[in-house]
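Bug #2210: token dump truncated for Cyclin G1?
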Amino acid sequence: MQKMSVFGFAAQMIDTVTEPGAQLFAVQLKALTDLEARYQPKLSGLRLIEGTPDNGLRMTTRLRELEVKDLLSLTRFFGFSSETFSLAISLLDRFLSVMKIQPKHLSCVGLCCFYIAVKSSEDEKNVPLANDLIRISQNRFTVSDMMRMEKIIMEKLYWKVKAPTALRFLRFFHSHVQEQLDAESKKILSLDRLEAQLKACHCSFVFSKIKPSLLAIALLCFEAQEQHDPEHTDKISEALRNLQQHLNIKDGDLLCVRELVGKCLAEYATTKCSKPNSQRLRWIISGRTARQLKHSYYKIAHLPTIPESPTYSSSYFPYRASSLMMDFFKEKLQLLQ
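Reproduced locally. Full output below:
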């Protein structure tokens, strides 16, 4: 009897010839997964947050999710890369898993993790001043407060910043899978769309407890499942099944995370989630602050439009940086006139 795989068809034993490319992939994958194990947030700390009642006295999952959404808005405002956002969330979750913090300190912790990620991932010329970052995010702490908190974060994380993030695994896996596909099949898995989906997953606390490599392959499996084109998705599923074997991931674990991904993205696609309060995505700054900010901060980063699919409408990832920034600047021009 053939065993049904997580990809929806019978898993068969496939004889493969080890090629130099496959050997290189295996070496790189082992290096990444070895690093991954050393950079994981402490599950005990995350479970403690998960079990905390939302009474305003202790750190909760809701507060963490709100902070991540604010960091996503900051990422869009400055036009920073997906790497910066993904690394910032990795740093935040790692720190929250080892330190009990009060809700009043969360904004400082989040902004410091974001600033560390910016300095690690962005060109030096694009790194904003700490004082400007505080002003734009409308926080009340000082640069000195940020410096002290940044030192605490770095010490608690043993000065280990460059963690292998879910985004890094996603790009690595996507590239590996694409190499095994023909020209038509390569069109199925859009990396831009996958990265947008990953950002939505980062905003959900449940994925903090899941290994980045598992989340990355679950996203690929979910997207392959959503494309109703058996002629090409069968080839993708075969490539993903081989990748699953490389990672030594059980079918049950992959199926569970794939379902969590689907639930998260379905919730994000609802009207309530796709149309949040615009004031939370737009900073109101004074004319004085606007004049003091670097000119480079006013660049508009045009993120690629996420292709539509049969499941998700164009409202799936609602605020592209371009539309958000245009609204922002129209309002600022009115204030300055």
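Output looks complete on our side. The chain has three domains: 40-156, 164-268, 277-336. Marking as cannot-reproduce; reopen if the truncation happens again.
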